[in-house]
Amino acid sequence: MKEMIVRIKGNVKHPITLDPGVWIFDDRRFTLDAFFSGDVSHVEHKEVKALGDAWDNQRKGLNPQSNQNIIHVDKKDLTENSLAVPLKPFLDNAALNDDAEFVHLMDGSGNGSTVTKQEAESGILAFSKEGRPLKDTGPVHFYFGDGSNEGEPITHIEVIEIV
User: Fold this and answer.
1) According to DSSP H, which parts of the chain are helical?
2) For the chain, how far is it from start to end, CA to CA, in angstroms?
3) How far apart are CA 69 and CA 56, in angstroms?
4) Superkingdom of this entry's organism (predicted)?
């Protein structure tokens, strides 16, 4: 059985392993329809608003409630929509080295495509199609940030190697 994980490795300070199966709980997720229609600005605004709210609460002396995460999952997202997340936060967590220039998006055999670091940082990873995990062509697909490969994403990505 094919592993449904993605590894980020290579010219990074922190190699990481990603499990796209849990991204349905990630607040950064959005539908591919919204992405290709240009309506994903809400993703960045939610993160900024959450940081602002945390700052306001800290200034007011309110203590954040720990271990009481509230996760909102729209059932329609799970059962009908094709979903994606931005790649940049994962690259940021891996801490690319200063001399990193390219990103290889590869299948388990090492075959794949190479994009620039900037293209990767503006790109997205799709992890479901019409409510189903990308078992046959996944675990993730890569789309350029400008949506230019909407009809032909880079598929079968199991390893993201920074060079």
Assistant:
1) 32-36, 41-60, 75-79, 88-94, 117-122
2) 29
3) 18
4) Bacteria
Dihedral sign computed on CA atoms, order 11, 103, 138, 26? positive
Q: Which of 119, 147, 127, 143 is nearest to 36 (CA)?
A: 147
Whether cis (ω within 30° of 0) applies to the bond prior to 139 is: yes
Residue with tokens 């059932």: 75
What are the start-end ranges of the E strands in 5-148?
6-10, 16-18, 30-31, 83-86, 102-106, 112-116, 124-129, 132-133, 140-143
Strand order in the sheet with 102-106: 16-18, 6-10, 159-162, 102-106, 112-116
Task: Quote the tokens at residue 76.
Answer: 């329609």
Instruction: Kindly report the pTM of this predicted structure.
Output: 0.80
Can you say how many angstroms the Cα of residue 73 is from the centroid of all Cα atoms in its chain? 17
